[in-house]
Amino acid sequence: MSGLFSTFNITKRGMQAQQTALHIVSHNIANANTEGYSVQRAELKTTQPFGMPSLTTSAEPGQLGTGVQVAKISRTRDVFLDAQIRKEKSTLGKYESRQQFLSEIETIFMEPSDTGLSSVLGKFYDSWSQLSNTPEPNSTARTLVVQNAQALCTAINQNYQQLSDMEANAADITSNEVFEAASILSNIQELNVQIKAAVIGGKEPNDLLDRRDLLLDQLSQKFSYDTEETDFKGIKIYAKVKKDDGTEDKREILKDGSLNFSLSYINKIDYEKNEIEIYIDGDINNKKTISVSDASEYKNIHVLFYDKTAYSKGGTIDASPAKFINGSINGYETIYEEIEKYKTQLNNIARALTISANTIHSDGNNIDFFNKDAEDLNNEPAKIISVNKSLVDDPKNIVASINSNEGNGERALAIARLRNIRMDVTGIDSRAKFISDVSLNTDKNSTEYLTMKSNPNGITIDNYFKSTISALGVSSQEAERMVTNQNALLSQLETRRESISGVSIDEEITNMIQFQRSYEANAKMISVIDQLLDVVVNGLIRR
Predict the structure, then answer these.
(1) Is 180 a domain residue?
(2) Which SUPFAM superfamilies does the entry link to (predicted)?
(3) Is residue 52 part of a domain?
(4) What integer pLDDT is reported at residue 49 of this predicted model?
(5) 325 located within any domain
(6) Pairing mode, if any, of strands 225-229 and 68-75?
(7) What is the number of other CB atoms lying within 10 angstroms of the CB of residue 149?
(8) Confidence label for 50 from pLDDT (cuts 50, 70 and 90)
(9) What is the pLDDT of residue 538?
(10) What pLDDT was estimated at residue 406?
(11) Rounded mean pLDDT of the chain?
């Protein structure tokens, strides 16, 4: 049966509920600009009403309510939108890292330009053509040949060194990315423990969930993954990886409060000892050396999974390649491949230049035009190619004619004609192979001495380089296009999420006024009850 004291309790509950709601409004406003914060709401519901009429209760006109209570403090979040955003962030992370380095590679090659390798190569062949017209020992064309050859070697050397420097830079960035990813995973693990403890205790850990979601967003930029919710709002994380056969696989790296696997970075490989030096969690201060069955299998791999559980117990480090599907780490891995490809192509160009020019030039007096060591791909020709020092010191030693004592310029003309000769640039690994590939006539008694024929399946050195630049341009444009598209898509998705989960100051002010008025009304109700009690107690006594 209701009474004044029952009404008083209803009013007290009303004030408490409105106060809690105002507290949440205040929390929302305070975190309006907090990254990753999701707006929270107090879910109000009626308390248990008085029971139905029975033999022990009097009949009432209806169930009488007992007030209001805060049933739950919820956060507004769309988990499906979160998953979509993280998927797109992984794609963006990959192409942002690619765009960054591909644009730098384009800057290195500077094509097309007057100072680019293609232009310098053209000037090199032009100078030989000029020398063929003026092959005299004192001809200034000889000095021009040496100068243009040196400029060509310098251009190749510099491009190769810049690519090597970029590779080292990519290594540092990848190591840092691994460090950040491992740190994020560790933080998620700790939050999982706290979240589960709070839920088991009957609480809604909204702020902790927001912090975990923010970390999950950040992790998605590093690599692509799937999540699975477990009991008491814990999560599992499955990294998406690529198997050796190219198919997609998943690796469970985190389960609730247990981090099964974390990441390490390969710093150095010893192929003779089959040992790998790694940075545990990408930390350069935590180096470990592990033994593998075949170190060559890790040549193009820079990131590993390692068994965190076994390592923490002091066991051996069980590591396996981490070939991610997407994310910035995957992007940097592909950049390693790109840089290695361009370095290989520069080596092919330097080797083909060296072998072709040396074969024709040395046939006259056994003097190589370029450093002979650049004929071997194992010596990194692009790194060491240089003009024979004896020719630099005395350009008169350049053999421009068929015989050194003749002045017909035929040998210089043959080298100049290399500009338009198609050859197997990637397959020429010796002078004999070059002679066979272009059908070079080496019979000095023949009227067709030093004549050549293009390999119908080959390509000129200049066009080989231009095809390299063309492929680079396509890759760079693709990365730029993907970054633009992903940014536009993510902007739309994040705007949608902000409209759902973000704090609207206008809405919060409206709610604040609403709950304030309700609080005031409940306070007024207490004043009314006080007056009624005064009538009941004091008024009746006076009578």
Answers:
(1) no
(2) Phase 1 flagellin
(3) yes
(4) 84
(5) no
(6) unpaired
(7) 26
(8) confident
(9) 79
(10) 60
(11) 92
Say how many domains are in the chain: 1
Please give the model's pTM, rounded to 2 decimal places: 0.89
Going by C-alpha positions, the residue among 269, 270, 306, 276 that lies closest to residue 291 is: 276
| C-alpha–C-alpha distance, residues 400 and 405, integer Å | 10
Residue 253, sorted as left (phi over 0), alpha (psi -120 to 50) or beta, turns out to be alpha
Peptide bond into 61 cis (omega under 30): no
**Structural domain range at position 8:** 4-76+508-542
SS (H, E, C) 373-401: HHHCHHHCHHHHCCECHHHHHCHHHCCCC
Q: Which residue has the tokens 């820079």?
A: 302
Residue 504 carries which side chain, given as an amino acid letter? S
* Structural contact between residues 415 and 128, judged by C-beta atoms closer than 8 angstroms: yes
* Residue among 360, 86, 414 nearest 221 (CA): 86
Q: How far is CA 452 from CA 309, 464, 495, in A?
A: 66, 19, 65
Neighbour tally for 447: CB within 10 Å: 7
- Report angle CA 257, 263, 264 to the nearest 5 degrees: 140
CB atoms under 10 Å from CB of 24, counted, come to 21
pLDDT category at 405 given cuts 50, 70, 90 is: low
537 is a domain residue: yes
Angle made by CA atoms 278, 283, 285, in degrees to the nearest 5: 90
Residue with tokens 């192979």: 433
Cβ neighbours for 216, distance < 8 A, ≥ 6 positions apart? 82, 86, 188, 227
Kindly indicate the confidence band of residue 66, based on its pLDDT and cuts at 50, 70 and 90: confident
Which amino acid is located at 272 in the chain?
E
Tokens representing residue 25 in the block: 């409004």
Other CB atoms within 10 A of residue 55 CB: 4
Tell me the pLDDT tens digit for each residue of 366-388. Answer: 899 999 999 999 999 999 999 99
Query: Tens of pLDDT along 470-515?
Result: 999 999 999 999 999 999 999 999 999 999 999 999 999 999 999 9
Q: Check pLDDT > 80 for residue 87.
A: yes
Cβ-Cβ contacts under 8 Å for 326 (sequence gap 6 or more): 90, 91, 93, 94, 223, 224, 240
Helix (H) or strand (E) holding 304: strand 303-307
Per-residue pLDDT, averaged over 166-179, amounts to 95
pLDDT of res. 532:
86
